[in-house]
Amino acid sequence: MSKNHKLLVKNAKQVVLICSNGEKYLTKHGMNNLSVIENASLVIGRDGLIKAVGPAETIRARFSESSFDKVIDAAGMCVLPGLVDAHTHPVWAGDRVHEFAMKLAGATYMEVHRAGGGIHYTVEHTRAAAALDLLTSLKSRLQRMQRAGTTLVECKSGYGLELQTELKMLEVIEEARSSLPINISSTYCGAHAVPRGKTAAEATEDILQVQLPRLKELMSAGRLQVNNIDVFCEQGVFDLESSRAILQAGKEMGLNINFHGDELHPMNSAEMGAELGSLAISHLEEVTDEGIVAMAKAKTAAVLLPTTAYILRLPQPRARDMLDAGVIVALGSDFNPNAYCCSMPVVMHLACVNMRMSMTEALAAATINAAFALGRSDTHGSLEVNKHGDLLILNATRWEHLIYQLGGHQETIRYVIIKGNIVYDNDKTLDL
């Protein structure tokens, strides 16, 4: 065993492993019984992977002959896995702050959409934007997420709705992946809305005959790395039949199915997604009882987005019903011009208050289960040996402060670490 390691985090008041037996996800019982070690230490190797985690005395004895590039004394602090944001739309140009007033005055999501706002407004500005400008704004947003504790984030295209802009967005995501420490799961979302001047059938045909074949070529050539395929399956957007055709085509290209379903109307998206073997379905504010049962049976993750229900004043996703049925529940911020939230701690707080999740359920949903929803729970989402050394250190004696303090993460997160490297050192944390 090598005696030189990248990082030792020692003497933490608590180390929250989340799970400790290689679980790929947790359901209701496991989410309420997280693995936590008191007075513990953790070692990250030069390859950025966790080499050991356990009681401080055990680690001290085992590594007494070892050297470390960096040692953090976490006495009185808590260590958690890096947070995972399982649903974001972070690549766009333009500003939709004016729509907030419309929503406050009572306009619905689809009313804003039909008035020329919403996705179409963003599409117009994103099509016109230079790739470099999109990259600059994307990096800034991802860095904000990172400071709030996110170390793995899903990033969607979807504000192009035609080949060139969709590829421009995916290339920008690819560039961010190679130039920032934050881990990225890339999603093609060309079926985010029906482009102006086209019918849904024409848009579906363009995706199947033009966009996906070109995407496949670029992926095969190694020029793009795309992980997931997404469709907005909704009344007035892409119906069940069109959604099924697009998702199946993506699956045949090797993409994980991870799509928007049952948000504004009960479309039976959950049932269809489960049948297709979807890795995850997002939103689900209007999911049916049958859809919940189907997702539980198929082990399709539910990515719940409390920010969306909050800002659009929608019914809250039925987290308790899903948990009771054995569904794998994950969380995402839904960061986009309509729901501008970069903070998974705020998302977890909303999940607890508005969706009636416990704090342990919310943390599991924002770590191991969110990683599962992105097909990454073998490497991310818990603090286990041979997983990525991605973690947060809180200036607090109990991990629950990250959720309990609404908007308090700026003063609570002391360090954000990715693959053993300190990517955020916040010397302005406050003692509790």
Spell out the blueprint of helices and strands.
Blueprint: E1 4-18, H1 28-31, E2 35-44, E3 50-55, H2 56-62, E4 67-73, E5 78-81, E6 83-85, H3 97-104, H4 109-114, H5 118-128, H6 131-147, E7 150-156, H7 163-179, E8 183-191, H8 200-220, E9 228-233, H9 240-252, E10 256-261, H10 269-276, E11 280-283, H11 289-298, E12 301-304, H12 306-312, H13 319-325, E13 329-331, H14 344-354, H15 359-365, H16 368-373, E14 391-394, H17 401-404, H18 409-412, E15 413-418, E16 421-425
Parallel strand pairs: 1-4, 1-5, 6-7, 7-8, 8-9, 9-10, 10-11, 11-12, 12-13
Antiparallel strand pairs: 1-2, 2-3, 5-14, 14-15, 15-16
Helix pairs in contact: 6-7, 8-9, 9-10, 10-11, 14-15
Structure explained in plain terms:
The strands form two sheets. Strands 1, 2, 3, 4, 5, 14, 15 and 16 form an eight-stranded mixed β-sheet that branches. An eight-stranded parallel β-sheet has the order 6-7-8-9-10-11-12-13. Helix 6 crosses helix 7, helix 10 packs parallel to helix 11 and helix 14 (344-354) packs across helix 15 (359-365). It is built from 18 helices and 16 strands. Helix content is 39%, strand content 23%. It has helices at 28-31, 56-62, 97-104, 109-114, 118-128, 131-147, 163-179, 200-220, 240-252, 269-276, 289-298, 306-312, 319-325, 344-354, 359-365, 368-373, 401-404, 409-412; strands at 4-18, 35-44, 50-55, 67-73, 78-81, 83-85, 150-156, 183-191, 228-233, 256-261, 280-283, 301-304, 329-331, 391-394, 413-418, 421-425. The longest helix has 21 residues, at 200-220. The two termini are 39 Å apart. By secondary structure, the chain is an alpha/beta fold.
